[in-house]
Design goal:
Blueprint (H helix, E strand, L loop, with lengths): L24 E3 L4 E8 L6 E2 L2 E4 L5 E3 L2 E8 L5 E3 L2 E4 L2 E3 L2 E8 L2 E3 L2 E4 L3 E3 L2 E2 L3 E3 L8 E2 L2 E4 L2 E3 L2 E2 L3 E3 L3 H7 L1
Parallel strand pairs: 1-5, 2-6, 3-7, 4-8, 5-9, 6-10, 7-11, 8-12, 9-13, 10-14, 10-15, 11-16, 12-17, 13-18, 14-19, 15-20
Length: 169
């Protein structure tokens, strides 16, 4: 997916959307998928290799994702593996460098009602949040559920506007 879907190339539609979540089982068999994704479109709310992983039935395991994701659009959730997780992500890693706006995490942008188990992130994250409730994290940007036995070694940078920075002083 590196040449065809990189900046200036054909657009990438993540696997699963919020209205049609991926509810299958994806076993990466220990392989790594390299992504170089770029978007400037507000049409996608959930960005990653997978856009949205379905509750109770969606499972991603034994998968590595490397490369980069860059977005200049106001997106709800960006993750190295999945944008919005309602399922199970197990034994996965991300070395994806992410630069965008929204809820951003190395594994999942949002861990809504899912589980993230035995995963790690080494990718760097730069987030310029669009809304006050946008989260940023090494594993999940926003977490409303369970994260177990996971770790992050990637650098996390929260880029805020000058006016917002002045308000903090």
């Amino acid at each position: 997916m590196s040449a065809k879907y990189s900046e200036g190339g054909t657009s990438w539609t993540p696997i699963g959307t919020y209205s049609r979540m991926f509810k299958g089982e994806f076993d990466g068999g220990g392989h790594t998928v390299k992504v170089l994704l770029y978007t400037d479109s507000d049409d996608f709310n959930y960005v990653g290799l997978f856009g949205a992983l379905g509750n109770s039935y969606g499972t991603i395991r034994n998968l590595g994702v490397s490369g980069s994701i860059s977005s200049t659009a106001a997106i709800s959730a960006i993750g190295g593996v999945v944008g919005d997780n309602w399922g199970i992500i197990e034994s996965c890693y991300s070395s994806v460098n992410i630069n965008g706006k929204g809820s951003i995490g190395g594994i999942a942008g949002m861990n809504t009602l899912g589980s993230i188990v035995n995963c790690y992130n080494t990718g760097d994250i730069i987030n310029s949040p669009t809304y006050d409730d946008d989260g940023t994290g090494g594993i999940a940007g926003d977490n409303y559920s369970g994260i177990m036995s996971c770790y992050n070694t990637g650098k996390i940078t929260l880029a805020i506007a000058a006016a917002d920075a002045a308000a903090l002083i």
